[in-house]
Design a protein that fits this description.
Elements: H1 28-42, H2 48-52, E1 55-63, E2 69-75, H3 101-121, H4 123-162, H5 168-226, E3 229-231, E4 237-239, H6 240-248, H7 260-270, E5 274-283, E6 297-298, H8 302-312, E7 333-337, E8 341-346, H9 362-369, E9 376-377, E10 386-392, H10 395-406, E11 411-419, E12 426-430, E13 433-435, E14 443-445, E15 454-462, E16 467-474, H11 481-487, E17 511-519, E18 526-530
Parallel strand pairs: 10-17
Antiparallel strand pairs: 1-2, 1-5, 3-4, 5-6, 7-8, 8-10, 9-10, 11-16, 11-17, 12-15, 13-14, 15-16, 17-18
Helix pairs in contact: 3-5, 4-5, 7-8
């Protein structure tokens, strides 16, 4: 399980602090370890189809009791329906052991699933629903036709009465037609109710089976998590039920504890290895929604792993979150100012408004600069995006500019350097976006629930080293829109250089808000402002 490096690492300095797992640049030893694991995966032909569809793997660089530095390897979930393969660390708890309660209960739940599927696809059920649809259509058509006949009969009788003709036969005809309509309705109603009863009997059985499946699945998850206990560097032990109750007052989500990072730390603690650095990389095809590039490193997921890792990392000296804001001592560069507006050139690394990560923001500096004004930051730039940002000095000015943004009257341009093969010189990207709650603050492409996000682009320059300078014109303003549209396989498939979330770190995020055009909220004059990118 504890692998030696296949190259000389004596000249590589060990990390000063353990990796912050939710956003990091992989240490050089982590990169070397990952390459060895990738070499192993490349010769596992028996796994190629399965892992080629996409799988997260992890490596933990560690030192043994003698000070020897090596690494551990793990994968998220299972491979080939097995949790335990010799090259990788074992699971925290092997839920796939053949005679374990999970397997036994899973078989019972599978039988319920089979029964549900059998009922839903049964000839009787499908035939009944088909008959019901045809009978309802026939009833509507025949009742409508008879009502039309009654209208014609009434019109004829009304015509006769207008000429003074009114016989008992005419009255009896009217009464008969009304009674006949009721008989037709009753007959169809009776036939429809009989079929609907048979359908409801089957649907009731399906509903009861689904309720039973849900109950058994919930109980299985609860029993399963009772067996999941993890350690931290202090030697403390806690169960997943306790960890999630303390952190979120909820049950652990399905799959919690089965990701690579908890497996790696658990094995290290149990076998007295000292964790030094960690990293997780993607192998195979990218999923349709999220941005996952083959062999690229990615942060640990937050929905399943954040509470677990927050416990397991206790006792380790963990690096700071690299996305934390920095405090700039220099004043902001003013691009435009009058009594109503202040437009600044925000530096990379500064927040637009105060956030959870701390650090100085444009809003803070605006409040210091205009202590007597009620200032508002009109729009947002990502912390690591530089460029033009508008500050309003009154609420009315803010509201009018917000209206212009909402009505898409404001024109924005961004300059970026992307890494990849951008085929077309220009085009439009339309990929709806929604928050990726498993990997916050990342966004994902979501055709079901995402908000419309549209970006025009054109290539400004192609460099010999595979980099491309691109101008982006966002027609909507979604969070991380340009970063996702640039990196996603259905977009440019070329991440912005230095994008730690959707690509790879490289000094800074090479994205700059270079132009903004809007109507002055008081004078009505067009304001066209530009800022040259610092790269």
């Amino acid at each position: 399980m504890f692998h030696r490096f296949d190259c000389d690492i004596s000249g590589i300095d060990l990390p000063d602090k353990f990796t912050y797992p939710f956003c990091y640049e992989p240490h050089s030893l982590v990169v070397l370890a990952a390459r060895q694991v990738q070499g192993y995966l490349s010769v596992r032909g028996d796994w190629s189809d399965e892992i080629g569809k996409g799988k997260m793997f992890g490596v933990l660089v560690a030192a043994d009791g003698y000070g020897n530095v090596g690494f551990l390897a793990a994968y998220s979930g299972n491979i080939a329906h097995c949790n335990n393969h010799p090259y990788f660390v074992p699971p925290v708890y092997d839920l796939l052991q053949p005679d374990g309660f999970f397997r036994r209960e899973e078989k019972k739940i599978s039988l319920i699933n089979d029964r549900i599927s059998s009922l839903e696809a049964s000839v009787e059920f499908v035939d009944l629903k088909g008959k019901l649809a045809l009978l309802k259509k026939e009833a509507d058509e025949n009742i409508s036709a008879f009502r039309e006949k009654m209208k014609l009969s009434k019109a004829r009788r009304d015509s006769l009465r207008s000429r003074g003709i009114d016989t008992p036969e005419m009255i009896r005809e009217s009464q008969f037609e009304k009674a006949e309509l009721r008989r037709i309705k009753r007959r169809y109603c009776s036939e429809i109710e009989a079929i609907e009863k048979n359908i409801k009997d089957i649907e009731l059985e399906i509903s009861e089976l689904k309720a039973r499946r849900k109950e058994r699945s919930a109980e299985l998850q609860r029993r399963l998590f009772e067996h999941f206990y993890v350690y931290n560097a202090n030697g403390d032990k806690a169960g997943l039920l306790e960890i999630f109750e303390r952190a979120r007052h909820e049950l652990p989500p399905a799959g919690a504890g089965e990701c690579a990072a908890p497996k790696l730390l658990q094995y290290a603690y149990i076998h007295s290895f000292k964790p030094l650095a960690i990293g997780e990389f993607w192998w195979g095809k990218s999923p349709e929604s999220a941005v996952r590039k083959h062999l690229h490193f990615y942060p640990a997921c937050k929905s399943k792993c954040e509470p677990i890792l927050n416990f397991m990392l206790q006792g380790l000296d963990v690096a700071d979150n690299p996305l934390s804001a920095i405090s700039h001592g220099e004043e902001l560069s003013t691009v435009y100012e009058d009594e109503y507006l202040w437009v600044v050139d925000k530096p990379e690394g500064m927040l637009s408004v105060p956030g959870k990560v701390g650090g100085l923001s444009v809003f803070d500096l605006a409040c210091e600069r205009f202590p007597d004004a009620h200032v508002f930051v009109v729009h947002r730039l990502d912390m690591h995006t530089s460029g033009l940002l508008i500050v309003a000095k009154t609420k009315d000015v803010y509201k009018e500019l917000q209206r212009q943004f909402t009505e898409r009257e404001v024109k924005k341009e961004y300059i970026a350097i992307v890494r990849g093969r951008v085929v077309a010189d220009e085009g439009r990207i339309s990929l709806p976006l929604s928050p990726d709650y498993c990997y916050r603050p990342m966004q994902k492409v979501d055709y079901g629930h995402g908000k419309c996000a549209v970006t025009d682009y054109c290539v400004l320059q192609r460099y010999a080293n595979g980099l491309v300078r691109v101008k982006f014109v966002p027609l909507t303003g979604r969070t991380h829109q340009l970063r996702v549209h640039s990196s996603h396989s259905l977009g440019l498939d070329a991440p912005i250089k230095g994008d730690m979330l959707y690509g790879e770190k490289s000094g800074r995020l090479y994205l700059h808000a270079s132009r903004i055009v809007f109507r002055h909220p008081v004078t009505g004059k067009e304001i066209d402002l530009r800022s040259a990118p610092p790269f």
